[in-house]
Amino acid sequence: MRLFVMAASLRRASYNKKLAAIAASLAKSKGVEVELADFRDFAMPVYDGDIDAATGLPDGARALSARIKAADAIVIATPEYNNSVPAPLKNAIDWLSREKPYPTIGKPVLLLATSSGRGAGLQGITATRIPLSFIGAHVYPSSLGVGSAATAFSDDGARLADDELQKKLASLIGEFLDHGARVAPSRAPA
Amino acid sequence: MRLFVMAASLRRASYNKKLAAIAASLAKSKGVEVELADFRDFAMPVYDGDIDAATGLPDGARALSARIKAADAIVIATPEYNNSVPAPLKNAIDWLSREKPYPTIGKPVLLLATSSGRGAGLQGITATRIPLSFIGAHVYPSSLGVGSAATAFSDDGARLADDELQKKLASLIGEFLDHGARVAPSRAPA
Amino acid sequence: MRLFVMAASLRRASYNKKLAAIAASLAKSKGVEVELADFRDFAMPVYDGDIDAATGLPDGARALSARIKAADAIVIATPEYNNSVPAPLKNAIDWLSREKPYPTIGKPVLLLATSSGRGAGLQGITATRIPLSFIGAHVYPSSLGVGSAATAFSDDGARLADDELQKKLASLIGEFLDHGARVAPSRAPA
Amino acid sequence: MRLFVMAASLRRASYNKKLAAIAASLAKSKGVEVELADFRDFAMPVYDGDIDAATGLPDGARALSARIKAADAIVIATPEYNNSVPAPLKNAIDWLSREKPYPTIGKPVLLLATSSGRGAGLQGITATRIPLSFIGAHVYPSSLGVGSAATAFSDDGARLADDELQKKLASLIGEFLDHGARVAPSRAPA
């Protein structure tokens, strides 16, 4: 089983990158093949129907699509911007939606979030469910929002500072991987 | 009263540009000073916290902010992408939210949409309400979604092909302008 | 495979009951064991935490929970009320959420809708995804909204009046059942 | 100016009732005429189109409608159930929406929430914005979610335990009342 993990933030010091790294580490410890990607490696312009008509998906979107298609399951750690899906993630979704069939069809996706705001990033997760579902992803019902992002991580970034939350994350990753192993498209009987 | 009208699409032949133009024309006929803007004039990169920290709002976002601050009320005709807010509009919102106080604070905003999809663009409108509210805009409760975008406009683009819908749009614009005249910040008693 | 089908409307002449009946018929024709339930058979009061604390789930909620647990997959045809999940369905979800573990955990759910409104009931579907996901249901990414409910059905109610839409519904039901057969909890390897 | 304040919970010991009481007290201290209502006084059955067709709005919904129409502005403290609008509140909205014109048309509404969950009740607020807007309410852009409900209140219930949050609430109430005084329908020039 191959897992693709990415934070939906372009900021180098993003808290969600830390969260994605912990999720990747937990998945590796369960024997899964993990790719921890950097969203910056998939640069793409703001979606513009004229660019799309003229030249199709930009290179960054094509590269992201290829990584998604190669994966059996996906974990996204997403910021919440203004109570909603962050623009860079929505932009990637809008570009990916221009490939048919959608590269995301049938892919199990787990959504995580960390935020300094009052709501633990949960509104970003909720808003992201809708367009991801539209492009055929099977967004996992459970998710995890980690509040107080600035103090949520151990000093070495290897784990969440709160033990109970770290256990919850480990358990969620395990449950998601079990699910992914059962339902991932590449695991379907021929 | 000054009204700022814009379609939240970068595509030159956008149906939402047609809808924005009709809305602008209806407002002008009511004696309001209208600016019908082209979203392409406010080009900005995908939101990136590092760019934000280094150089602040890009020129396109600053220019858009200035137009918004100069207006008493705003009309946005928005596409719906993947059952949600279109990335270019969310991106503009995310950049604008980095200016404090938000340039949108207290501004009455009317949301319109046209779409070729089954849902008349209403899910784009609904998803857009949330982040616009977060940055302090007073999103008008009523809105209008125009379905079957490809056949929704008269040949000269001067009106909606369906008379009843054109009347509904005219009435909505009138009602919104009356409301805007009462509540717009620049109209507040000193 | 056992499929539970229900319209989330209490009204006897509900268009969504017609839609649920067509969905049930399509599933039966594919050899699946189908229960087409009437939401009125699961009467329950408005959720009240004091009733919950005193007497737990009301009989109607218990009966609905039992039907859900006995099913491998679920189809809900839902009205849209005021751009959101209809109160009777949200009420059932809120009561079901008080049973632990949730009876809906891991259940594949397909959402359909019909509406006389402009948006084909899609906002009801979208709003319903969120609480259903919260109680562990695997809401199927694809869904179908049928507009113009008053004229959407054949005179005998056996099919959608529009052939293309009927084919789309048949294809969606088939695709969902294939998926359900693969992932339904009762089909998991021991 | 008359303000109507209510918690959207039927539970007697509801944390949101405490929050509503504090909001009411803050508004009174600003010289506003306040009605602090108990949601239990507006009992109504689960929405059923057949009841609606036969007998129209039930007494509880009529009484609630009358209180809303008599008010210049409204404050609702709402629980979050399953990441969404609580069924009892959605049920009231669905019943109110059957009166034409909607009793909520043009009414400024401020949404507050308290919750024991990770997200401070913000998803309940967000989900509630949509149907309230649909029935014409002017949902105030700012809102306040209070997390850790069990420890959020002073022992006597007179204030939020956290001073900063209490100040934020007081400031929000003040700002909302100023806004309401300017825009409330009954304050419109003749």
How does this structure look, described?
The structure is a homotetramer of 190-residue chains. By secondary structure, chain A is of the alpha/beta class. Chain A has one domain: 3-Layer(aba) Sandwich (Rossmann fold). Chain A is built from 6 helices and 6 strands. In chain A, strands 1, 2, 3, 4, 5 and 6 form a 6-stranded parallel beta sheet that branches. The mean pLDDT of chain A is 95. Chains in contact: A-B, A-C, A-D, B-C, B-D, C-D. Chains C and D meet through helix 4 and helix 5 of C and helix 4 and helix 5 of D.
How are the SSEs placed, and which strands pair?
Four copies of one chain form a homotetramer.
Chain A: E1 2-7, H1 15-28, E2 33-37, H2 49-55, H3 59-70, E3 73-77, H4 87-96, E4 108-114, H5 122-134, E5 138-139, E6 144-146, H6 163-183
Parallel strand pairs in A: 1-2, 1-3, 3-4, 4-5, 4-6
Characteristics of this structure?
homotetramer, Rossmann fold, 190 residues, alpha/beta
